[in-house]
Automatic annotation (TrEMBL):
CDD domains: SK (cd00464). Pfam families: SKI. Pathway: Metabolic intermediate biosynthesis; chorismate biosynthesis; chorismate from D-erythrose 4-phosphate and phosphoenolpyruvate: step 5/7. This is Shikimate kinase. Mg(2+) binds at residue 18. GO terms for cellular component: cytosol. The gene is aroK. It comes from Microbulbifer donghaiensis. The keyword Aminoacyl-tRNA synthetase does not apply.
Length: 170
């Protein structure tokens, strides 16, 4: 594992990007950033406020802008689940290190998250969770350098698996 390299976590809401990212950063002596927090700081409001005041496409636009202009060497970068809608944003993040897709089944995500409809997910009104899941799988796979399955594994097991995959890449 090169010390000057960042790691970019992608995946569905509930996949564990934010929770796992901090643990990974500690294991690897890297800094940690959650791009959702970057968006909120820049806008001075919560993601939910942005969605309520405008719409999900505006949130995706702002997210794309933040990701495209981010300078994040030596970080574990937890993205929001909708980061993959920004081609330019993902291309920028890819400069800093490998993209790790935390791959959870729809059933597992449903078990973890009970408020999908009110969680501020950047999705079209009326779109079902299953439709969103299918639409996004293709995008996560497109950007993934490493895919780690998360079903039935606790946080530490997933962290260990990510670390192992990163070592094998080096
Ligand atoms: N491997 C896991 N096993 C069990 N619970 C998990 C796992 N990964 C994440 N969680 C839980 O799922 C919830 C969502 O995690 P979070 O890190 O916020 O996901 P994301 O940032 O990908 O939306 C949290 O309550 C977290 O503790
Ligand atoms: O997938 C999404 O549309 C979103 C996921 C959220 O982040 P997490 O994936 O960390 O929950 C956050 O960026 C925003 O509420 C939109
Ligand atoms: Mg998160």
């Amino acid at each position: 594992m090169k010390q000057n390299k960042s790691i970019v976590l992608i995946g569905m809401p509930g996949a564990g990007k934010s929770t796992l990212g901090v643990l990974l950063a500690k294991e690897l002596a890297l800094d940690f950033v959650d791009t959702d927090v970057m968006i909120q700081l820049r806008e001075g409001k919560t993601l939910q406020d942005i969605m309520d005041e405008t719409d999900y496409l505006n949130l995706r636009r702002i997210e794309g802008d933040v990701l495209s202009n981010a300078e994040l060497p030596n970080h574990v970068i937890a993205t929001g689940g909708s980061a993959v809608y920004s081609e330019e944003g993902m291309a920028n993040l890819q400069r800093f290190g490998p993209v790790v897709f935390l791959d959870c089944s729809a059933d597992e995500l449903r078990r973890r998250i009970h408020n999908y409809e009110s969680r501020g997910i950047a999705m079209a009104p009326g779109q079902s969770f299953e439709e969103l899941f299918a639409e996004r799988q293709a995008l996560y796979r497109k950007y993934a350098d490493i895919t780690v399955s998360c079903d039935g594994s606790d946080l530490q097991q997933v962290v260990d698996r990510v670390l192992q995959e990163l070592q094998e890449q080096d």
